[in-house]
Design goal:
It contains 10 helices and no strands. By secondary structure, the protein is mainly α. The chain has a single domain, classed as Tetracycline Repressor, domain 2 (Orthogonal Bundle). Pfam families: TetR_C_13, TetR_N.
């Protein structure tokens, strides 16, 4: 079974790279199989449908994203304000890649999959809620350790900041410039009082 799991993950990793460049609807299964070096016709050995594949793609993306977020918080010698700002710097660095075309599947696919696949929409909704949950915990911890203060509730602040950064990422893609991300960073510092 490990070989099957490895091949399945290879397909997901390959698809992520291709989908980030082209979008979900523009990517064919055969393109992913060929790029991953997996024989044609074996796709359904790993996934029940393209919809199940898309759902697995988003779950895999969020698992990696959560691991990155959790790794930032794992530095216990840092204050919660430092954790938060390291996270936003991570977000920034991810989004300025490739002339601001970024590496975030939520930014790349959010509107597309909301209309295309209910399973992918639900997975993305759950994933983004879990990101906000982690941000809220960091803010609560920052209030507790005195490194952060906010004018609204921690939850409302986490939601507003995440929404701000998603929007800034889309505008950065449109302009091929990090200006909006720079403004998002400045607003984030003001909102968190850091």
């Amino acid at each position: 079974m490990p070989a099957k799991r490895e091949t399945r993950q290879s397909l997901l990793d390959t698809a992520r790279r291709i989908v980030l460049a082209k979008g979900y609807a523009a990517v064919g299964i055969n393109e992913v199989l060929a790029e991953a070096g997996v024989p044609k016709g074996s796709f359904y050995h790993y996934f029940d449908s393209k919809d199940a594949f898309g759902e697995a793609l988003m779950k895999s993306y969020f698992d990696d994203y959560f691991a990155a977020m959790d790794g930032i918080v794992a530095h216990t010698e840092k204050s919660s304000a430092e954790h938060l700002m390291r996270y936003w710097q991570y977000f920034y660095d991810t989004q300025v890649k490739d002339d601001c075309q970024g590496g975030c599947l939520v930014v790349k696919l959010g509107a597309e999959i909301a209309d295309l696949s209910e399973a992918m929409r639900v997975t993305t909704k759950a994933g983004t809620a879990a990101i906000v949950d982690r941000l809220e915990r960091m803010i609560v911890d920052g209030i507790a350790d005195g490194s952060v203060s906010v004018d609204d509730s921690p939850r409302a602040t986490a939601e507003a900041l995440y929404d701000l950064w998603l929007g800034a990422s889309m505008i950065a893609k449109i302009h091929s410039s990090p200006g909006q991300l720079d403004r998002a960073m400045a607003v984030t510092r003001r909102v968190l009082h850091v």
